[in-house]
Design goal:
Helix content is 32%, strand content 25%. Strands 1, 2, 3, 4, 5, 6, 7, 8 and 9 form a nine-stranded antiparallel beta sheet that branches. It has helices at 25-34, 59-65, 88-95, 128-136, 143-156, 161-170, 198-207; strands spanning 12-17, 38-41, 45-50, 69-74, 77-85, 99-100, 105-112, 115-124, 208-209. The longest helix is centred in the C-terminal third of the chain and has 14 residues, at 143-156. 27% of the residues are buried. A hairpin with a 3-residue loop joins strand 2 and strand 3 (45-50). The chain has seven helices and nine strands; from the N terminus they run E-H-E-E-H-E-E-H-E-E-E-H-H-H-H-E.
Amino acid sequence: MSFFNIFRRVHATYEFLALDKPLEKADRDKVSKSVAGVASVTSNRASLVFYDDFSGIDFESLMEDHFDLMYNLDAGNWILCYAFPGSSDLFNKLKRFCFDDGATQIADAKRVESRVIVTMSCYLDLDPKMLKYEQQDKSSTTGMFGFMTKIRAQLMNGDFRTLYALWEKYMPEENDEYDDDEEGFIPPPKPNNPPQGRDVVDAFKNMLTDED
């Protein structure tokens, strides 16, 4: 970190993880050069720090080419992003769970070639230990990335219970855009709730909170 950055206010920090394929040196150099912030990039992780002049980042393009998980915390709002190989059938089913609350896109998904990218925007009441473990355990088997890895596995297997939890938490009861009587609108189906993975879904539900 530059000496001068010590005196600047950190505006945003993005944490990335590559699970399926380590980054080669050329990829690491590409990531470092592609962002205007201060980048710390290894073969499987990247921390991008942006200061006062931050004007946004196209994190989805980094997910398309290099990473499988990303999280960002800004003023209490968490952005969680998951990328994985997925069929068009899986993507079409997943799209049914995408929605906004009239101001913010809460759940979104896109498919680039054979790669699916899912983004969640939410408020989390997070145990501080989870982020502490994240800093200590570079294997990413614990902490925030460890938890997100479990959700990613569920999404890859067509288990959309965490997305439905977002719908239940943040879908306004009265929203003209999502009027059940509106022609063509189909609410997302309520997923089955088998025992396998239920602990992950329940933990995610318990984390979800309203904006302060």
